[in-house]
Amino acid sequence: MRPATSAGAVVTAPLRWLARATDVPLSAWQRLTGQRGMIALFLLPNMAIFGIFVLVPLVINLLYSTTGGTEFFLSDRPQVGADHYARLLDCGNYLDPNSCRDDMFWIAVSNTARFVFFQVAVMTLAALITALILNRALPGKGFWRAVFFFPVLLSPVVVGLIWKWILQRQGLANLFMVELGLEPVNWLTDRLWAFVAAVGVSVWAHMGFYTLILLAGLQAIPRDLYEAAEMDGTRPFRVFWRITLPLLMPNLLVVIVLSLIRAVQIFDEAYVLTGGGPGTSTMFMTQYIYEVGFANLLRNPGLAAAASILMACVLIVLTLLQLYLSRRSGAK
Amino acid sequence: GEVRMMWYSDGIEGEVMQDLLNRFMEENPDINVTLDNVAYQVIMEQLPIQLASGEGPDIARVTNLKEQAEHWLDLTDYVEDPEYWRTNFGDQFDWMRPDDSDIIPGFMTQLTLTGGFANATLFEQAGVAMPGEGATWEEWVEAATQVQESQQTAGAFSIDRSGHRITGPMISYGANLVGEDGKPAPLDDAAKAFITQLVQWTDEGKNLRDVWVSAAGTTYIPGADEFINANIPLYYSGSWQIANLSTKIGDAFDWVAIGSPCGDAGCTGLPGGAALVGIKYTQNPEDVGKVMDFLAREDIVKEFSERTLFLPAHKGVVEAGGLNFQTEDPSAKAALEAFVGFTGTIMPEANAMPAWRYANAVYGGMVNRISQAMAGEMAVEDIFARIDSDIAEQVAAADQTK
Amino acid sequence: MIRFLTRRRGATGDGHGWHWTDIATWVWLIGGTILMFGPAVWLVLSSFKTPAGLAEFPPTILPYAQETTMLGDQAKPLFEVTLEDGITVTMAELRRVGIVAQMVPPDQPDAEPLKININDRTPVRQMDFATENYTQPFLQFDFVLFLRNSVYVTVMATIITLLTNSMAAFALSKYEFRGRNAVMLLIVATLMVPLSVILVPLYSVVSAVGLINNLWGVILPTVATPTGVFLLRQYMLTIPDELLEAARMDHASEWQIYWRIVLPLAAPALAVLAIFSVVWRWNDFLWPLVVLSRRELYTLQIGLNSYAGELNVQWHFILAMTVVAMIPVVLVFVFLQRFITAGIAGTGLK
Amino acid sequence: MGAITLENIVKSFGAVEVIRDVSLDIPEGELVVFVGPSGCGKSTLLRLISGLDQPTSGHILIDGKDVTRVSAADRGLAMVFQSYALYPHMSVRQNMAFGLENTRMPKAEIASRIEEAARMLEIGPLLDRRPGQLSGGQRQRVAIGRAIVREPTAFLLDEPLSNLDAELRGTMRAELAALHGRLGKTMIYVTHDQIEAMTMADRIVVLRAGVVEQVDTPLNLFNKPANRFVAGFIGAPRMNFIEAEDGRVMGVRPQHLRLADGGLAVTVDMAENLGAETLIHARTDKDQPILALLPGQLTPTRGENLSLVHDPADEHWFGADGLRL
Amino acid sequence: MGAITLENIVKSFGAVEVIRDVSLDIPEGELVVFVGPSGCGKSTLLRLISGLDQPTSGHILIDGKDVTRVSAADRGLAMVFQSYALYPHMSVRQNMAFGLENTRMPKAEIASRIEEAARMLEIGPLLDRRPGQLSGGQRQRVAIGRAIVREPTAFLLDEPLSNLDAELRGTMRAELAALHGRLGKTMIYVTHDQIEAMTMADRIVVLRAGVVEQVDTPLNLFNKPANRFVAGFIGAPRMNFIEAEDGRVMGVRPQHLRLADGGLAVTVDMAENLGAETLIHARTDKDQPILALLPGQLTPTRGENLSLVHDPADEHWFGADGLRL
Ligand SMILES: Nc1ncnc2c1ncn2[C@@H]1O[C@H](COP(=O)(O)OP(=O)(O)OP(=O)(O)O)[C@@H](O)[C@H]1O
Ligand SMILES: Nc1ncnc2c1ncn2[C@@H]1O[C@H](COP(=O)(O)OP(=O)(O)OP(=O)(O)O)[C@@H](O)[C@H]1O
Ligand SMILES: O=P(O)(O)OC[C@H](O)CO
Ligand SMILES: [Mg+2]
Ligand SMILES: [Mg+2]
């Protein structure tokens, strides 16, 4: 028996006892209310917590966005209607942030859009490749997994810092460049490189997370399908495209949706790494919101709330689009 | 009873404070003071929320003094000798109490003053003489540039990326940031002149690009590490850096505090500091008063300053002089003494800034745009209008009340 | 083919010899190790540097400190000095005045000091681990207390997360009911809101239910994480319905089906979520910072962060404590990652 | 306990009507076998009875109580799935114990029932393996074991022996029959095996494309098939149909043909030797295919002419509409 | 193309030796049937030949070339899995086309091959469904279709007809035999069905617990089983064994018993009516069980005494060691 299964047994024995104990009231409930009652029961704890600690604040946030001033509590804040939205959306030309009343907001929006695109693409690909490789029988499996997962264990601030030290003018990276006989690079003060660094570091930090999701998905694909494909004389790439990828689709969808959402919310590590610079070239939405709402000593929480609501709207549309497309393309 | 003090540290002051509190508790066994060491971020971002909802600690060390003045406890009735307080700390009470009020909100645990530091060893190696007292910004930058060229340093000088740091120089140039209505005035020519000059110095590679360009928004970035590593001969920051420079530079080179270079209107640094205040929502103001009394005692203030290498705000302590800062480092000792002296050169406009509600809006508004100009995203002429409108929007939004 | 995806393929497909995919695999693994692990190793090494060592440019990979020698009762730094005649000797510096250092050979402390230009000497350094970065916080920092709080928050939050999320995911993946898509949409939609954005409203809510300065105030708002529901649901969709049907025929209640059939079969996804939950909760910073302002309630991350001041951050302590704080999550990961493969061998179907 | 009644059951998947108006009465304790071509709806019908699927219309009654809306778990039936549906994460023992634990049966009782089932199914040594480590036939036996330990009101068995060898199948068949006799529980049994159907069934239900073609005892079905379809379906090899001039069709089973002069003249296509019998594939002069199952090991050559006779009592006559005359 | 040789194949799962030293020579074009009790290692042997599993020791040769270390994809064989292993995300058509597309076959050719297979397997109307929407038998046919469209060097078929009804099974059997005849490809066929084994096989390999018991043509196996195990395993119902005094055992098949006076006196336990024949379960006075398959529909009552005779030519004699004498 594999060690994992015996480890599993240690965990499951008390769990089974618990199952028996909990089943008494719960099956009574089922008899009383039928399947609908059970559905409600399964959903209740999560949805209750979710409602109180996510939905209610969200609604408050929406109300926030229609109020002004620096006060923190809704009851102390004056109504300003759609002023904040008007301010954010006041633009001569939406493609040119300079023509907007709040140019920082639009700079943040366009930076974020670019960041999301590159980060999600690069990271999904890297996570997929890594998951495929880790799914092979390798000597020291656990070690390799740990290697790629390791950065996920670090807090974003630490991630930002490590890389800042590596990439700064006289950091480790340039030390290596010089050793290799290359010109040092202004990783963090060149507009393009800083953006690349923000994408790269974020991929570095979160890739392990998505790799693990994909790995779990790969493990769930029945082996006999690969065997059938092998008997069909299928070349590896085709197996990948025609068997692995379609069957991995639900997990890939999780990865894409989550990474997209998280990319839009990029903050801590980029903030520590580049602070949004050089200039404003890596200033993203959350930084904008954070600065307007908290960091600026004269804060404007209403404006920040309005910006966050706009951001959430965009995200919802993006996600729906993605779910719709993936459903249409036939993945379950 | 129970007293909670929210405290942040830049160095060892948390340890010193704990030590002092332990002594206090020995003297007053009936009062238990808990020191909650927190990140500065908590003081800046979380404490305001707590205060707004009428919660929070009993005592806090804060820097955003004026903005939150309504939450401070008036200690007048709880301290033994209000007069002692007014005499020794009175000069800064206006920084931390609502306009037109005469409460005793607390006292400054440290005074700070912006000012420059020079790498004496680099100057000496380059054979460049350090400009003397009264030298202008241009002269200092010119001298530093010569050092830069001779010693091949990465830059000639650096100023921390902070609106607070460039405000002193701007005032020295003659800028007036406060309008007649007490609200921020549009940038005047002197302000524009300094900003233009600073951006130009950056473009020329004199002002080390990395510090200002490596962030957007109002993020604070210090240039201390560049100075510590002898990448720049001249560094403009403030008195609080002394302990930091001392530990990290060690014996690597000699450095001196040079005060603030001059402009047309003067040679001022900008004062500031952190205050220890009582919080209005405390359950036992008497105990708070006792703690505050203890910490404000002349000998305690002196000991605190000497051990933490902070400039004291206690008039008695300052006037008595003879502070024996506890450091082995002659550079640090000299710098501390020098800064005590520089307090005399503060211009009244600079002295008014800490008590001005909109100072922070102005600082933030400038930093963001200036760094955009330095990064080449905007021409320097174009940023002035943006700075003015940014500040105006912020002020307008902040002034909305119910 | 299966070998490409499951084990080393080998030139002949049997695990012997080298196929190009093997080479690609190892290149990726080793390259990945350097890239992923390198910075982390560097973090650990850096945590042993003194504040001066941390600020140093260019950085050294290993922590170094200058060697000293005892002259009399004082430690004096050692340098390699290049003398005028080109010979290099090791000397101790008595003192430095400007660009000139007064130096003596370490074995002749009383010799006439030589005046050496500081550009003609380089410090003699040796590896030195600044263990005080670790010991000092342990002494003054209530490490054990903070650790206990962190463990409590992490364990509670993870258990509740796994339980509530998997229950919701089960309902959302294995039952057809009206409003299912609406619930799913709501959940995905709220994924979008970064915590930093709803911080203030959330604070009012938590304060309204009286959980400020309470560890449960840290735990509860995080446990209904949409990420978990979403992740588990997608995985549960791949569990064959027929197994649930078999259980129904076995007279299992819906709760039993959830607990005895679906949960074990979702083990890989649960393990993933458990790992994430532990990492998230362990590293949670912003929210606990808001809710907890009393020392006896601090979690490790909050305690750690008290080294971040207004103008200076004591990185040497933060780094050291970061490394210490990392150890438990590494252990959890190492333990749980096995369950990802311990999942399902075949589906049990024909 | 265990009388099952289907009233006008219809089941559609989307637009496809898979079960079309099936009504059926299964008295308590009866062993009913469902037979029919692949895809005719046998499994679907079982699933409807089990409660795992809901009929599009119609009612299902157990012991006279309408259970159409009662959940599968509460109908008290046990099912052997055609796909086995073993719990992959549980050992064989746990797979079998699961259903019993759900009824809070004492541990000792559970163990003894599993012991008993394992003995009967010859899976004793496999009890601690996981399904993934079993052969096809072993899995199937576990699936059966899981059902029988339950001792339910009624059994639903979907091709439970299809992956077993002849010998084991024989044994298992006898064991299931004995079980049925012992417990007296209703059993619905889907099979493709003629022998199983003939020997085990109290009655056989012949399905075609979602419709019940005939319900009767095995011998009645064999002797008096209601129509050509049933006649062809029941009995292996398949009945020969010889078209008469008047559009009527005469059927005669291959087993009922004998070699004798003066009978039907046929030409041999092929002879398959089954050991004790030989199956002759031949055709009449009108090119109609004829199968004859003759005892012994015969070796007629291709093209050889044979003459086949049969007893007129063994003739079955069907009209042009396919119905028995 | 397609001669397959196994040399001393051993396969263990952990400590369990599942295949023990199997050697076998399958000449090109032969149709070999593997039979044996459930769990004896048939599927495992197929997997070893296919290359999906590696033998613990021994060699596998295809056309004289050692392919033991060649991957399954490169052995050019096709396999029908006992578990079907259909791609759940592809339609039936795509499932069948998949292997062909791998060889870059022109689209038209692919379509026509699928057409042809679908006709033969009667799955034309299902081509655009997903496996999840098929009945068990339909899935099995798709799995067969997937193999035959490939026209590989050799076919490996693991109980390919187990879920089909008798009629379809008969048709499919004939179709597969025809396919074999037409393509002349080697086929290895696992089945539990005696008739399939007897009629289709060029040779039958009888396995027991990972060991080859006998390899021979169907009739030879039937007529001259090498030992008691084979004798009992081949032929259904199972051969009767009657122990003689001297430890030897006499075997006689149930089909070879006739009712006639003066034979073996037995007491009837039960009679199973199969339609054209009746299977009598009886026992001798020494309490040895006896099966007799008698033509016609007999209805002896339980306890009735019968006398059974047989032709001495139909006797099989085995020594105490079980070997044929
Ligand atoms: N992964 C495995 N681990 C351990 N034992 C296994 C494994 N796979 C198969 N076995 C065992 O190997 C033996 C042979 O299995 P195999 O599948 O070859 O049997 P089979 O002859 O095909 O049987 P059936 O007719 O029931 O399909 C069985 O006893 C089975 O339990
Ligand atoms: N989910 C589904 N969607 C559409 N059609 C389905 C679905 N499930 C089954 N069918 C179809 O319903 C018909 C009956 O299926 P069922 O499984 O009941 O057949 P069966 O009689 O059990 O056949 P077999 O003997 O092959 O197992 C088949 O034609 C099948 O293709
Ligand atoms: O992405 P969410 O909202 O599920 O949250 C995940 C963790 O809480 C992040 O720390
Ligand atoms: Mg079926
Ligand atoms: Mg098998």
Overview of this protein structure:
The complex is a heteropentamer, with one copy of chain A (332 residues), one copy of chain B (402 residues), one copy of chain C (350 residues) and two copies of chain D (325 residues). In chain A, 73% of the residues lie in helices and 0% in strands. Chain A contains twelve helices and no strands. Chain A is globular, with a radius of gyration of 25 Å. In chain A, 57% of the residues are buried. With 402 residues, chain B is of the alpha/beta class. In chain B, strands 1, 2, 3, 4, 5, 6, 7 and 8 form an eight-stranded mixed beta sheet that branches. Chain C folds into three domains: 2-46; 64-127; 135-341, MetI-like fold (Orthogonal Bundle), CATH 1.10.3720.10. Chain C is 56% helix and 12% strand. Chain C is built from 15 helices and eight strands. Chain C is elongated and about 100 Å long. Chain D is an alpha+beta fold. Chain D has helices at 42-50, 72-75, 92-102, 107-121, 136-148, 166-183, 194-200, 218-223, 228-233, and strands at 4-13, 16-26, 31-35, 57-62, 65-66, 77-80, 154-158, 186-190, 203-208, 211-216, 240-243, 249-252, 258-273, 277-284, 289-295, 305-309, 316-318. In chain D, the strands form four sheets. A six-stranded mixed beta sheet of chain D has the order 6-7-8-3-9-10, sandwiched between helices. The mean pLDDT of chain D is 91. At the A-C interface, helix 1, helix 3, helix 4, helix 5 and helix 6 of A face helix 1, helix 2, helix 5, helix 6 and helix 7 of C. The structure holds adenosine-5'-triphosphate (2 copies), SN-glycerol-3-phosphate and magnesium ion (2 copies).
List keywords for this structure.
heteropentamer, A: 332 residues, mainly alpha, MetI-like fold, 73% helix, globular, disordered N terminus, C: 350 residues, alpha+beta, 3 domains, 6-stranded antiparallel β-sheet, two-stranded antiparallel ribbon, 15 helices, 8 strands, 56% helix, elongated, binds adenosine-5'-triphosphate, binds SN-glycerol-3-phosphate, binds magnesium ion
Beta-strand share of residues of chain A: under 5%
Q: How much helicity do the residues of chain B have?
A: 40-55%
Most residues in contact: chain pair = A-C, 128 and 109 residues
Number of strands of chain A: 0
Helix content of chain A: over 70%
Q: Give start-end ranges of low-pLDDT stretches of chain B.
A: none
Transmembrane segments (chain C): 26-45, 151-171, 183-203, 215-236, 257-280, 315-336
InterPro entries (chain C): MetI-like, MetI-like_sf
Family (chain C): Belongs to the binding-protein-dependent transport system permease family.
Subcellular location (chain C): Cell membrane
Element layout with pairings:
The complex is a heteropentamer, with one copy of chain A (332 residues), one copy of chain B (402 residues), one copy of chain C (350 residues) and two copies of chain D (325 residues).
Chain A: H1 3-64, H2 83-89, H3 103-134, H4 141-149, H5 156-167, H6 172-179, H7 191-219, H8 223-231, H9 236-264, H10 268-274, H11 285-295, H12 301-328
Chain C: H1 2-6, H2 20-46, H3 51-55, E1 64-66, E2 68-71, E3 74-82, E4 88-97, E5 100-104, E6 114-117, E7 121-123, E8 125-127, H4 132-140, H5 143-174, H6 180-190, H7 199-208, H8 215-223, H9 226-236, H10 241-249, H11 254-265, H12 267-283, H13 286-291, H14 300-305, H15 315-341
Antiparallel strand pairs in C: 1-8, 2-3, 3-4, 3-7, 4-5, 5-6
Chain D: E1 4-13, E2 16-26, E3 31-35, H1 42-50, E4 57-62, E5 65-66, H2 72-75, E6 77-80, H3 92-102, H4 107-121, H5 136-148, E7 154-158, H6 166-183, E8 186-190, H7 194-200, E9 203-208, E10 211-216, H8 218-223, H9 228-233, E11 240-243, E12 249-252, E13 258-273, E14 277-284, E15 289-295, E16 305-309, E17 316-318
Parallel strand pairs in D: 3-8, 3-9, 6-7, 7-8
Antiparallel strand pairs in D: 1-2, 1-4, 4-5, 9-10, 11-12, 12-17, 13-14, 13-16, 14-15
